């Protein structure tokens, strides 16, 4: 009912949207998934734009590409040819899995994603940026709980001793069983439910289910061992003696927590504030696979937002600006019921207490906007809440931004309410209070229970250490003091342990408890933390799949892809993916041949100008004219001064140059032709529509700059400069 009301309100506000109610649109009411898409394409908010018919059709087409089992292979072929990324040391026979190198195009794409992340979060939210060491002393990660708890469950082949992740083996075993058409609906439903919670099962539950399903080691078919834990951190030693143990950090967050006091001083002791860090993290994955999605060294971008006192109502001053962002939620309740993903605004989700904090809800909405800004398809994006059984040891509430790829739903961003866990643990172990001092609006009279201490006996026994003992006793509440006094025996002693010392208390040192009244002007508290954590490599790979498309979409092309995807080759210097070569035929035979044999497929990466590796390609049709060469070089220098990335392409026919440029995701192409020498104008071509307009050279740099930051759209540019008609 609420969805229907929103639709009719939209129609009232935007009459042009009535055109969406075509016959094909009316048919969408009969299917749940199509109904949800209809709602999305016809509703809007103050923070999202209207969806046009062409965009709906385009997204439908891309959704079909995602379900194509050959999409992954096509993307990998083009990524390899363009050297977006490649396996480390691939020229050697003994390759190490889970390590990848980024090429020139991959580096540019990743850096542009990170730069937009900085603009979107650090600049807009006025955050502090820090850079902490990768090499982390053991005490830091032992305090945070990573040494004991940062682990996965592993099994091994009992004969070859090769290792594999236990939950992944369970998932793969279930996937094979689900392909059986004779499987009953009840059994199929139980298996799907088990697969959904595979990564949250305990060791005993994994062992029981693997035995029940008769799982075997994937590569050999041999029997497997009982599951056992494996810590994922890389350990090392600091210094020549090797006595100081350290780890390569598994996350960047701990560097921010141990510097909390300095960051608080930088913010003049005020809350809330946020600190961000971009850097490498390392995890010794058991069986890395799936390309960039599961690696041993990866780039992270993390934020730690320190909130106000938990006693006060959680509040983010900018939440109203995002409360109408429409999102897909898969809450704990939805997962337990095995129900459909729920669509609503983030404001509605917070109202229904689906999300624990307003600050967490704010960052979830901002994360959605960031991902869609860089080109992630919103129809393949959802937020899944962690089940209680899979919640991290530090998390009070946790959501994952999951993106759908050819590998299925992949966690790309984790958003956690870490409460006060990390700061309290580091305070306790280090002895340094990581707290905030806040003033009451008016002084308060508070009652405190204090121990009655025999300072003569205490001073005689502990000397200068007495002060530390008094501070410890003053920090205890009434119940703790009563328990301590009761535990002191008539003869002998009881130990009271602090962070730095141990005191042996005997009878007579503490004689009782007294109630004191005290006027206080301020109080201290440990702030809670909301943490968005972005896996840049996973986001980059998802973006490659979501941006990849084929220029020619005829049925012949689709059939050629399906039949020959395992043999796609670079047919020329352009981005032509052709079917594998077949035997030569006569001209007469070629005329009657299956049209699929002559198909040339033009592949394109449809990157947003915000993150495209190159904004503009410069093409000179007359390469041997000194005047033309001088013009192109001067033009490129102007672009460089404006920080607009560009490339020069001077070889091959113009069509093949465009094909090369499109494959690399370059947003615009500027062409210098014969007419340029006559009237000082050049053409600019938009990658996706292939439309061109002619513009004076002097105006082009500023236009490109506006196009690159989305300050000017291609449609608006066409209103000023007419299209070139071929």
From TrEMBL:
<keyword id="KW-0648">Protein biosynthesis</keyword>
<dbReference type="InterPro" id="IPR002314">
    <property type="entry name" value="aa-tRNA-synt_IIb"/>
</dbReference>
<dbReference type="InterPro" id="IPR002315">
    <property type="entry name" value="tRNA-synt_gly"/>
</dbReference>
<comment type="similarity">
    <text>Belongs to the class-II aminoacyl-tRNA synthetase family.</text>
</comment>
<dbReference type="GO" id="GO:0005739">
    <property type="term" value="C:mitochondrion"/>
</dbReference>
<dbReference type="GO" id="GO:0005524">
    <property type="term" value="F:ATP binding"/>
</dbReference>
<dbReference type="InterPro" id="IPR033731">
    <property type="entry name" value="GlyRS-like_core"/>
</dbReference>
<protein>
    <recommendedName>
        <fullName>glycine--tRNA ligase</fullName>
        <ecNumber>6.1.1.14</ecNumber>
    </recommendedName>
</protein>
<keyword id="KW-0030">Aminoacyl-tRNA synthetase</keyword>
<dbReference type="GO" id="GO:0004820">
    <property type="term" value="F:glycine-tRNA ligase activity"/>
</dbReference>
<dbReference type="Pfam" id="PF00587">
    <property type="entry name" value="tRNA-synt_2b"/>
</dbReference>
<dbReference type="InterPro" id="IPR045864">
    <property type="entry name" value="aa-tRNA-synth_II/BPL/LPL"/>
</dbReference>
<dbReference type="InterPro" id="IPR036621">
    <property type="entry name" value="Anticodon-bd_dom_sf"/>
</dbReference>
<dbReference type="InterPro" id="IPR027031">
    <property type="entry name" value="Gly-tRNA_synthase/POLG2"/>
</dbReference>
<dbReference type="Pfam" id="PF03129">
    <property type="entry name" value="HGTP_anticodon"/>
</dbReference>
<dbReference type="GO" id="GO:0070150">
    <property type="term" value="P:mitochondrial glycyl-tRNA aminoacylation"/>
</dbReference>
<keyword id="KW-0547">Nucleotide-binding</keyword>
<dbReference type="InterPro" id="IPR004154">
    <property type="entry name" value="Anticodon-bd"/>
</dbReference>
<feature type="region of interest" description="Disordered">
    <location>
        <begin position="572"/>
        <end position="592"/>
    </location>
</feature>
<keyword id="KW-0963">Cytoplasm</keyword>
<keyword id="KW-0436">Ligase</keyword>
<keyword id="KW-0067">ATP-binding</keyword>
<dbReference type="InterPro" id="IPR006195">
    <property type="entry name" value="aa-tRNA-synth_II"/>
</dbReference>
<feature type="domain" description="Aminoacyl-transfer RNA synthetases class-II family profile">
    <location>
        <begin position="178"/>
        <end position="555"/>
    </location>
</feature>
<feature type="compositionally biased region" description="Basic residues">
    <location>
        <begin position="580"/>
        <end position="592"/>
    </location>
</feature>
């Amino acid at each position: 009912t609420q969805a229907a009301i929103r639709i009719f309100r939209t129609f009232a506000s935007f009459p042009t949207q009535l055109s969406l109610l075509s016959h094909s649109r009316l048919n969408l009411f009969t299917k749940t998934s199509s109904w949800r898409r209809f709602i999305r394409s016809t509703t809007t908010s103050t923070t999202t734009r209207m969806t046009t018919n062409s965009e709906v059709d385009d997204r439908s087409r891309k959704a079909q590409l995602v379900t194509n089992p050959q999409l992954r292979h096509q993307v990998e072929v083009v990524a390899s040819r363009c050297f977006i990324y490649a396996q480390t040391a691939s020229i050697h026979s003994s390759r190490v899995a889970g390590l990848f190198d980024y090429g020139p195009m991959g580096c540019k794409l990743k850096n542009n994603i990170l730069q937009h992340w900085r603009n979107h979060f650090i600049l807009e939210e006025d955050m502090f940026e820090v850079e902490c060491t990768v090499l982390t002393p053991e005490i830091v990660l032992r305090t945070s709980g990573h040494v004991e708890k940062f682990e996965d469950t592993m099994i091994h082949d009992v004969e070859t001793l090769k290792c594999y992740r236990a939950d992944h083996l369970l998932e793969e075993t279930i996937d094979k069983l689900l392909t059986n058409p004779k499987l009953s609906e009840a059994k199929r439903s139980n298996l799907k439910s088990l697969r959904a919670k595979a990564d949250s099962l305990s060791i005993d539950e994994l062992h029981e289910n693997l035995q029940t399903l008769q799982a075997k080691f994937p590569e050999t078919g041999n029997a497997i061992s009982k599951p056992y834990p494996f810590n994922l951190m890389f350990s090392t030693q600091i210094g020549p003696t090797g006595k100081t143990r350290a780890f390569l950090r598994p996350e960047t967050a701990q560097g921010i927590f141990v510097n909390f006091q300095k960051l608080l001083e930088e913010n003049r002791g005020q809350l809330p504030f946020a600190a961000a860090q971009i850097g490498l993290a390392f995890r010794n994955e058991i069986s890395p696979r799936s390309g960039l999605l599961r690696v041993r060294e990866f780039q992270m971008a993390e934020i730690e937002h320190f909130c106000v006192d938990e006693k006060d109502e959680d509040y983010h001053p900018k939440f109203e600006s995002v409360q109408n962002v429409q999102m897909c939620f898969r809450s704990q309740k939805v997962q337990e019921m095995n129900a459909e993903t729920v669509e609503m605004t983030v404001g509605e989700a917070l109202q229904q207490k689906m999300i624990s904090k307003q600050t967490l809800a704010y960052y979830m909405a901002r994360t959605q906007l960031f991902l869609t800004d860089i080109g992630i398809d919103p129809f393949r994006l959802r937020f899944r809440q962690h089940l209680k059984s899979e919640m991290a040891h530090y998390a009070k509430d946790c959501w994952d931004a999951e993106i759908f790829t050819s590998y299925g739903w992949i966690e790309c961003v984790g958003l956690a309410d870490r409460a006060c866990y990390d700061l309290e643990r580091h305070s306790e172990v280090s002895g340094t209070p990581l707290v905030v001092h806040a003033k009451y609006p008016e002084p308060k009279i508070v009652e405190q229970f204090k121990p009655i201490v025999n300072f003569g006996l205490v001073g005689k026994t502990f000397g200068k250490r007495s002060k530390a003992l008094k501070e410890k006793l003053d920090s205890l509440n009434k119940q703790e003091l009563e328990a301590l006094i009761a535990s002191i025996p008539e003869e002998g002693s009881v130990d009271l342990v602090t962070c730095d010392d141990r005191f042996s208390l005997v009878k007579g040192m503490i004689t009782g408890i007294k109630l004191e009244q005290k006027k206080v002007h301020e109080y201290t508290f440990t702030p809670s933390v909301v943490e968005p954590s972005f896996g840049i490599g996973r986001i980059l790979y998802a973006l490659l799949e979501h941006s990849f498309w084929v220029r020619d979409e005829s049925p012949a092309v689709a059939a050629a892809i399906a039949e020959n995807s395992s043999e796609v080759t670079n047919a020329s210097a352009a981005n032509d993916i052709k079917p594998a070569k077949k035997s030569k035929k006569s001209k007469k035979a070629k005329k009657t041949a299956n049209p699929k044999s002559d198909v040339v497929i033009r592949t394109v990466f449809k990157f947003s100008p915000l993150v495209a590796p190159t904004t503009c390609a410069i093409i000179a049709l007359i390469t041997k004219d000194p005047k033309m060469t001088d013009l192109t070089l001067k033009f490129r220098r102007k672009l460089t001064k404006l920080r607009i990335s560009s490339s020069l392409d001077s070889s091959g026919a113009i069509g093949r140059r465009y094909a090369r440029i499109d494959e690399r995701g370059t947003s615009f192409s500027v062409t210098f032709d014969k007419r340029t020498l006559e009237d000082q104008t050049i053409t600019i071509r938009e990658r996706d529509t292939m439309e061109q307009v002619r513009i004076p050279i002097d105006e082009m740099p500023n236009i490109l700059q506006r196009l690159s930051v989305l300050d000017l759209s291609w449609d608006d540019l066409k209103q000023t400069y007419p299209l070139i008609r071929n």
